[in-house]
Amino acid sequence: AGQHLAWGYVDMPPLTALTAQVARTLFNDSIVGIHLIPALAGAGLVLLTGAIVRELGGKWFAQALAGLSVVVAGSYLMSDSYLSMNAMEPLIWMGCVLILIRMVKTGNTRLWLAFGVLAGVGLLNKHTMLVFGAAVTAGILLTSTRKLMGNRWFFLGGTLALLIFLPNLIWMIQHNFPHLEQLANIRRNQRNIQLDPLGYMVQQIIYQNPQTLPLWAGGLVYFLIHSQGKAFRFVTWTYILALGLLLVTDGRPYYLSPIYPVLLAGGAVGFEGWLMQRRWWGWLKPAVFVLLSFSGVVSALNVLPLLTPEQYIQYTKTIGFSQPQIENAHLNALPQLFALRFGWPEMVAATAKVYDSLTPEEQAKTIIFTGNYGEAGAIDFFGPPYGLPKAMSGHLNYFYWGQELAPMVQPGTIVIALGRNPDQLKPYFESVRVAGLVHHPYAIPYENFPIYLCRGLKVPLEQLWPEVKDFS
Length: 472
Prior knowledge:
With 472 residues, the protein is of the alpha/beta class. It is built from 22 helices and five strands. A five-stranded mixed β-sheet has the order 2-1-3-5-4.
């Protein structure tokens, strides 16, 4: 996506693609470079949580406690270990919360301008910013904080957010809101794991690390009834309303993760105040840090690729749990987000063998067609040293990119098909045969498949292109 910069994509707004291109420009295609920006976002979230604690009146213990609680939460360790919109989203939500807390304390309603800018950037990062925006607006209206809204700065801030988001909105209108089409397809195909409200809350506890539950649950209470915290009661309402919206819309459990740092901050401030009134309970401070640190090690080994696959499999058997499953996909011994990191170079090497079996004349009229964007991206990234052509696919934004190339693919073209059903290929080619096999023991099972060599395309690809569209 970074190589095709645009104001929108089927499955995401433009900010992540821009971030990817910046990372590649600065660091080339290095492992460190592509991981550095999300890692810095994770570090920034720890510092931002400490800043929220300070605004709430917390001292060093509360700041350290809340920061450590963010560090040991599996949801942030996981999302900050690879480049995606999920690494940036907590920073944006918490930046907005910090501005609101500051506004409540000072009465400076000009801060709505900063809120609007950050909210607009958040919408360019991930559309679940709308969930936060709706929840926090309703939460403010339900509390005394609403007195900060009836002024020109509030409306100017909202206008700024809309103007920043407008290019992406225009792109979506021009393309008939493809992301909504994708979400409808996902719901119809039941791709996501379905959870009832109780199961959804259990997942919240798991994602945030069960050891932090007393702290963030305490934060909900702190903002609701504590004499100092209730000035920011909108935080509790924001959480409740965002949770309700995600339950109604079948949002994935980790979609709520960006809200927890402020709850951890409130819980830490409340706990610090409780300890200050009970000096003899001071021994709890080091005990809490030790307990959280130990749980963080357990969590890190579960969600970060720190072990070999064999070690990881044995580790999860020993502790009795692994990463929560988010999709109804058949898995092997590794969870989905680890299995999806295996097999791509091997897939490209197997494809290159099929391509090299063709004569130079045949290669000149050969395209590689894949079943999903992961396969297409692997061909594009690992393929050049093998002399492979760029991949084509009907999946997500590759559909739009392929639309530009399809008119050049004429009858008689040879197609190397990856991840495709042969019954869907045979009507359009003179011959379809298995020419290779993609297999990796740790790859997600649906990425192990035969490679089909399809000869004699019967009709122009431009004519077939609307049928290959796959927004799922």
